[in-house]
Amino acid sequence: MRISKIQFKNFGPYKGTFSMEFQKNPKKKIELITGVNGAGKTSVFNAIQWCLYGYEPSPTDPKPKQATKYDAWSNLYGTNKEGKIPSDPNMYVNLWLEEDNESEHYEYIIQRSIKPRNNVDEISEPNHIEMELSVSENGRLIENPIEKIDSLIPVSASQFFMFHGENLRTMSQKHLEHTKKAIELILEAELFRQGLDDLHKVRREIGLEFDAELKEVDSLKGVIISRDKKQQELTDEKDKLDKLKKDLAETERLLKDLELQLISYDSTKGLIEKIDEDKRKLEQINDDIKKLLVRRDGLINQLPSLVVLPELIKIMSNKEDVHKSNEKFKNQYNEIKGKVELIEQITKLEKCFCGNQITSVEKRLLNDQEQEFLAKLKEIEMGIIDQDPNYYAIKDIVTSINSINLDFDTYDRDLSGYNLRKNEVESDIKRVEKLLSGINREEIMKLTIIRNNTLTKIGELRQKVDNKREDVGDLEKIIDRFNRLINQRERSKSFSSSLSDQFDLSDRIINSYNYILDDLIDVRKDLLEKYTTEYFKKLTNNPTEYHKIIIDESYNLSIIDSTGSQRLREKLSTGERGVVALSFILGLKSASERNAPLILDTFFSHLDESHYSNIVKEFPSFAEQIILILTDLEYKTLKDRAPEFFFNAINNVWMVKRIKPEERSEISVFGGD
Amino acid sequence: MSSPLILTCSEESFKMYNALCKNDEEREDDTRLKKVKIFYSRTPAIFLSATIGIINEKSIEIKKDRQLTRREYILGNPNYDVIKKIIKIKHGLKTEHDIVIKLMEYAEYGINELYQEYHKTGEIDFNRISRQAKSG
Known about the structure:
B: mainly alpha; 2 strands
């Protein structure tokens, strides 16, 4: 890859538009830029870097990043210290790169520009400006310009292709960690390491997922046990159901047989029913007779009193005479006593009821009469016999017994009626039994009972079958739920297995990757050592004194001398260290197989005569395109010392001038010689 | 003197009572329908027998007695009051003991009468007895 053109406007000290075209000529690889100190040479170098990366690449931050406006502001546009918007405020750098890859030719145009925002009056802070970046490949605009630039010349690699002499001195020191990373990046080992990290990350994620799935699988073990238990229960219940169904079918068949047998006895069924009915009637009659007999016992219990009624009446009649005599005397007694009482009342009176005075004669007559009555009363009293206390009691008993009506007639009629009916029913039963005498009635009864029992049994069996079906259905539902869970488990298991495979695979990939990476680094390091040693032997003053440059894991260099002893780089002279560093950079460039232009700024300082000559001699072979930035003194020295073929390799000499008093720079082609 | 706790009858009468009256087992059984026994128990038979003896003014002294029934079955029966009065009036007896003994002597006669009828006809015509009593 080479830079075919640079165009910039208002960049740094350059006011206005400048263009530098580097025509392609395989024999003229060197573009030489020279000028006095402060003329603006390094600004060309900075313009290339700004266009590519938006800022000056630093070994401490080798990763690509979005260029900030602040970079533009502080490094470039910030030169406008007054903050006034200039008459032509736009700034840009455009870079043309071309590359021949096999049969394809690629041209990339990278354009980076800044300008003030439309609505600002002054430029005093980064936010006052806008920056744009675009990359086109063979005329086609690239969607992500940053990525494209990084694929062309990685920012970390840029320090090995575009460096000041100061960088060379840095490289001659012991490499720091970030430098190691930059080296690995350019050797693409970093890419592999990144891949390794990604693989580790993937493996960790798979592991976590695998652990989670394993937990899920473990939690479902209980479900499987429960399912198997329920499955066994289902099998048992189904067996029971089958047995019940079999029993039911068998019983139904038995019922059918029974029904068939009973149909043949149908004609006798009526007779049997009649007998049953008659027997029920007979039972009822017997019950009625029993009640009648109880009634009879009641009548018999009352009979003794009735039997003795004549005796009681006789007793009563005996007592009646005395009673009547006494009654007669009592009546007479009461009559005379009344008269006596009347006489007593009259004798007490002065006048008679008629109003006449009662005379003494009358009173004497009354008195005599009274005495006569009293004598009679005494006589009557003597005739009254003591009252018989049993008289009224017996009288009451007789009255009571007289009211008894022992209706044995009705009883006899009722009994004979019942007996008549009983005889009729018994005759009927005998008649039917005679009709049934040839028939095995017991068999029919037995069959009927069996039929009825069978019907009951069938009902029970059907209920049991229904219940069992429900049980089986419930179990099937439970098992179905378990199975769904278990299917989930199977999926999980399969997933786990897949994860496990993936985990193993990632492990194997990581191991392989590690192996490849180690191999790659070894190969790269070997190659790097080889190229570095080759360059070093070409550039050093004492190629025979040194045997080899060796590179450790941190890409730090040591030199093995011809005796086989290791000479630490720190013990080399400053010039030698610079040569070692340059050798390493060139070796790195060769090992990385990257075809990029080499831009060297104030590179030749600190080199002694011998090293200077060696480097200049080998210079054109360092890269496909070399942009060499020299002070006017260096250029003069070069002209004095460099051999002719060096100058033949120069494509253009660009002269940078500082124009005063405007303090602006200009650049123009000076010539090829 | 109080009446005896157990009332007795003659050996012959005892057999007649047994022929005419159901015992406990027979009462429990359904043999009532077979009409083999006339009286539900001995008590109604004793009272009917006694009244037959009274009405015929015939009683038999009881010798070589058999235990027939318990006193309370007789004294607790409503017929007893009637018969008691008759015996008291007819015989001037005053103690319960004498009255009950007399009752059983009347019954001793009466049961023979009943049994003879039963023996001859296979039954006892209560309807006739009732009618005779009513007609005096």
